[in-house]
Amino acid sequence: MKILVTGANGQLGRSLRKIKDQYPEMEFIFTDIEELDITDIAEVNAFFNEHNPDFCINTAAYTNVDKAETEQDINYKVNVTGPENLAIACRNNGTKLIHISSDYVYNNDSDQIMTEEHKNIPKGEYAKSKLEGENKIKGILTDFYIIRTSWLYSEFGNNFVQTIIRLCKDRKELNVVNDQIGSPTYATDLAYAIMKIIKSNKDLFGVYNFSNEGFISWYDFAKKIVEIKGLDC
């Protein structure tokens, strides 16, 4: 089985790379923008025609929520046009698509557990683009999994955990908001969940929510990071 991973230099892509040797029966193709620009339909079609993957795991995304308000063009290209192009290529090549989306499509800042049936009320350009990307896929494919996750963190790249660790090395005091609630999700756990879907071979296509258990505010999350890492901050 051949598996294409887009956005391979991001934290989920790198987490998938970390565990790939546990699946020796599978051939992984890891790409980032240098190898495959998902916003270029001609390039995407050519890549799929050459490699003909069985699965495509799309971890590529524009993730800067604040900058998405002013960088709307690139936000749209990566989060909407990119998934649309991949869906077209998957349809043409018989490839199953696993697309990573976000809990931002719900606009939920409480400790309420969100199910897949909850109404989508995206707020802001980032959230709107993630939902539109999902809808593009749904309009093209039937063989897809859309996984909505939240507050992704890992030992790789830029994320909240790494930011707090870095800032605590330079500062004695940090200001962190306490009015935003969410479920931090370890990227490697999501990577294993994705591989479980692929190995199950059950074709239970659709939209799924995935996060680690529990809720916490950014403030309490920061406190726990400082405590666990033994930081002087």
Account of the protein in words:
The chain is an alpha/beta fold. The chain has one domain (about 1-155, about 185-215): NAD(P)-binding Rossmann-like Domain (Rossmann fold, 3-Layer(aba) Sandwich), CATH 3.40.50.720. Helix content is about 40%, strand content about 15%. It is built from seven helices and ten strands. The strands form three sheets. It has a six-stranded parallel sheet with strand order 2-1-3-4-5-9, sandwiched between helices. A two-stranded parallel ribbon has the order 6-8. Strand 4, helix 4 and strand 5 (about 145-150) form a beta-alpha-beta unit. Helix 1 packs across helix 6, helix 3 (about 70-95) runs parallel beside helix 4 (about 125-140) and helix 5 crosses helix 7 (about 220-230). The longest helix has 22 residues, at about 70-95. It is globular. The N and C termini lie far apart (about 50 Å).
